[in-house]
Each structure stands twice: as structure tokens, then as C-alpha cells.
User: Fold this.
Amino acid sequence: MIELTSDLAHSGGPQVAAEPVGPTFPVESTFAVPPLWCPIEPRVHPAVAQIEERIRPWFAGFGLDRRSLMRGRAARAATWACGVAPDGDEHRLQLFADWVCWAFVFDDHFTDCGPMMDDPAAYNPMVCRMLAHLEHPEMAHLDGNRFSLALRDLSVRMRACAPASLVERWIADHYRWLLGSACSVSDRSAARIRSLDEHLIVGVLDRAEHITTLMIQFCEGTDLPAREEARPHVRAITGAAQVLHAGYNDVASYWHERHQHSLESNLVHILQREHRCSPQDAMAEAVAVLDGIMLLFVELREQLARTAGPELRRYLDQLAHKIRGNSDFQRTAPRYTTTLDIDSAAQRQVPDTPVVPLYEYADKPSIVRREPPAKAISWWWDLLDR
Assistant:
């Protein structure tokens, strides 16, 4: 159990009514998201508004249902892409933002909601057909899935502006992502809650971390050499950035996923089950876990930067931008902060920027110790200078 420096029932976030979690766990009258420690300066690409405006007609051109189009409008995908890749080329950022919009809505439509969310027998073959369209955009449309049409368009565009080697990595990273999402669907079908160790492996896959890390380099015209990428220290700091990214998503989306009945792959819910505690205590524990990993990221980044060449220094900056840009997005994302109807096609008004963020930022981490929270990532700490 990670030591906390403050009381678990921290009042630093917005208060919302808690739902019952069953007779085993106490029911809280209010629920607060503690502040997160993220000592990285935010930056955003200046063309964010123009990129966002161009997403809508593109996404609307594939004949998707009204609910999905509403979701696309609420996604604010350009805000996310321009925050994680602030130095990107505008043309490439447009492709990235279009993909982000598609991925957000695909996730809501198939993985975390809808008839396939707990049906691997339906979900897995659908995903395989979709991947075939990604890998072979020349293929005839197989099943009437409008999401496949959009993904095929993204594949054609990617091939037109990226070298073949990067396209192959991009495709392979989609297989990683959809393997993780298939695990989530399988867990849901069996009402199985994964362990923290499992989540630190599968959650990174399910959040498409490898794709987005690659796409940031694509947008900013960089490519970390394979010899650098293979170093244990670089793999560790990359993993830390990816877990932070996925973890901030879990914290921000907890109540959204609770409403969707898709908490099987949420860090907060996993900690609640492992520690047999209330949602409030589990949320505070999740923040402590993330603050501890952020401490590791900061120390490992400083350690690597002392001898890093320009390519690695640039990559370390990109990882930092990915963490902060994602966090800024998640804490104000309309898909998590508004009462957006996810169970019907009823139109709701979605504000561009919610008034109250889901969480604030802390001046210092919530923990005083830096021990690893799980065996799956304990080797990262072994790499720190003592």
C-alpha cells in the first residue's frame, strides 16, 4: 500500500453523488477527485481551432448514425492531438486528429458500450475485418461497418504521407491496441476484474498508447533511432509515460465508465476491489499510484537527459507533452464532464469547455515514498541512480 501524505477523503476535486457499489463496500455521500501532480508545462498547437473545424465534415462523410456523430462533435479530438503534439505539422496533425475522433467514437460505440461490449464472439471477428481494411485498403468493403470505411480512408491518407516503414509500425500498433480492447471485452463478458499487474499491461494496450506515441513523432517529423528505443531506460520511461496517460484517462473517465457499466478495465475500480475499499479511497489510491509514477518519470527523465543526444532529448520532451496534453484534455473533456446521453440518440447540448474541471493540479506529489506499486513495473525503479 503506498503511503499518502494527506487524508484519503481529499476535497480537492468536484463533488458528485456516489452510486451504490454493493453490500461489500461502504457508500459515500460525496465523491472527490484529489489533485494530481503533473509538473510539466502545457503547450498547444496554434491551429487547434482550424483542425477541429475540419474534423466534422470528414467524420460526417461515412454515413455514421446520429449518436456517433454527436459523440464525434463532443470528442474535441483536435484539442487532444494539438496538446500532445504541439510542434506538429498542421497537415499531419489533421490526420492524427481525425484518427483520434474516430478512435474515441469507436471506443464508445463498440468497446465500452453497445451490444458487442461484452460479446467477444461478435467483437473479435469484427475487429479482425476492420484490421484487414486497415492493412489492405484496396479490399472490398466486407460487412457494411461504417467505421471500417473511415479507418480505410485513414489508411490511404497515412500511406500517402508516411514512409512504408512507419506505416507498417502504425498497422502493427493497431493490432496491439485492439488486442487490449479484446481483452477488455472478454473480461466484461466473464464479469472478471483484472489485477493491478494485469491492468498495467493490458490498460496500456487498450488505450492505444503505442499508436499515439508513434503518431506524435510522425506529426513532429522525428524518429527515435531503434538503438535508443531498445535501451532499458528508454523503454522504462516510455512505459511510465504510457501508464500515466492511461491512468489519467481512468481517473477522469471513472464515473462515465460507471454509467456505461464498463469499469472492468478502470484503475480506480481495480484498486477498489484489490483493497476492498470505497470508491473515494480507491480514487485517492489511484492518484497516489500515478503521483509515484510521475516521480519516477521526472527522475528518469533528468537522469537520461544528462547524456542524451538531440534525438533522445526531443523524444523525452514528446513524452512529457503527451502526459500533460492528455491530462489537460481529460480533466475538461465533455465526454466525461457533461451529462451526455450515451444510451440513446437524443440530442444534448454539449459545451465546448466544461466550467468545472474533473480535477485540479497539486503543487507537490501526494506521496513521500517512491516504491513501485506493482510487480509488472518494478524494474523501472531498478534503473534509477541511487
